[in-house]
Inverse folding.
């Protein structure tokens, strides 16, 4: 069976939008653009002209960055757009379903609702440290399930799913559904990325982002990594002109060897700070438990969440209070600079 049988029928007949790129110096009278730029940076960016519909130079550089083929990557405006694109590529509204394990990234369910796709859930258990049991997950799987979303490391719990468990899942649902493995926080984890497996498992899609480890949340650049067949179908849904010209240039200039080395240094600092903050939090009476996390954050259960909220209300400190009913006594704390972390720790120390 080819992946084609899992694609939404309407997508199969869509053309891939790929507007021809004009040669440098060409007289462009075809796209109803303004003939001249009016802005101060006109010599730098030519903002009167549309950007490349598919910024191939950026795609090539990101493919090298992720060590995959140029035909195995599509770029999106963050992982959030990628989730929507994947659902619209594979899921038939009012018929197909997705499967998730909450608490997890809330955008999976958001875009399922937006696209009239039912969400089935296998909740994670606090008593099991919110670890995903893949064997239990496969029992929830049914003939309407089109996509299984797995975040590893998971947001907001920080727990991971082993690559062996992911491979077993891929084998068990082969020819039946897609597994989307969201690796947004993989750089902070001891796990190895599964991008090397995209040709081994035709039903595997991996999401990556420059937002977290590479400190580029402001440019909104995500990557959809899959085998070339899936990538071709994804491109049918992915709109052209996704990235503005300055953004394209900024991203290209940001994934240089020097900047990548700087990112690795910061990742190590964040991991050390996370360990320190975790140890300090466990000393406080208001803290019930700090969960093991392989992201750049900690999931913390508090003994009196209302007292915490009222204390923070009159400060300029913002932490992540979670919407899940199962996490009403929890908060997700992103690891900041040492000074920022100390300000929070000093405040929590005073809450009795």
């Amino acid at each position: 069976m080819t992946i084609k049988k899992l694609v939404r029928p309407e997508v199969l007949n869509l053309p891939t939008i790929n507007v021809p790129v004009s040669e440098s110096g060409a007289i462009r009278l075809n796209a109803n653009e303004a003939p001249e730029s009016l802005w101060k940076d006109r010599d730098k960016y030519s903002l009167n002209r549309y950007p490349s519909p598919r910024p191939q130079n950026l795609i090539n550089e990101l493919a090298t960055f992720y060590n995959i083929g140029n035909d195995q990557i599509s770029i999106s405006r963050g992982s959030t757009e990628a989730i929507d694109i994947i659902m619209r590529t594979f899921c038939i509204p009012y018929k197909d379903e997705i499967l998730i394990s909450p608490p997890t990234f809330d955008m999976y369910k958001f875009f399922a609702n937006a696209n009239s796709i039912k969400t089935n859930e296998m909740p994670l258990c606090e008593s099991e440290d919110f670890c995903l049991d893949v064997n239990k997950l496969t029992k929830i799987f049914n003939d309407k399930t089109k996509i299984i979303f797995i975040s590893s490391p998971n947001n907001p719990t920080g727990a991971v799913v082993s690559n062996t468990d992911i491979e077993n899942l891929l084998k068990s649902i082969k020819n039946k559904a897609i597994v989307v493995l969201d690796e947004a926080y993989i750089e902070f984890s001891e796990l190895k990325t599964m991008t090397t497996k995209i040709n081994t498992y035709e039903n595997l899609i991996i999401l990556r982002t420059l937002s977290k480890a590479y400190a580029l949340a402001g440019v909104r650049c995500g990557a959809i990594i899959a085998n070339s067949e899936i990538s071709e179908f994804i491109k049918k849904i992915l709109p052209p002109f996704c990235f503005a010209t300055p953004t394209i240039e900024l991203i290209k200039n940001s994934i240089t060897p020097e900047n990548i080395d700087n990112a690795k240094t910061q990742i190590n600092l964040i991991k050390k700070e996370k360990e320190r903050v975790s140890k300090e939090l466990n000393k406080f009476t208001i803290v019930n438990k700090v969960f093991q996390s392989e992201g750049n954050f900690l999931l913390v259960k508090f003994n009196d969440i209302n007292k915490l909220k009222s204390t923070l209300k009159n400060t300029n400190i913002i932490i992540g209070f979670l919407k899940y009913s199962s996490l009403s006594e929890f908060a997700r704390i992103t690891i900041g600079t040492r000074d920022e972390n100390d300000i929070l720790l000093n405040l929590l120390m005073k809450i009795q």
Remarks:
- The radius of gyration is 22 Å.
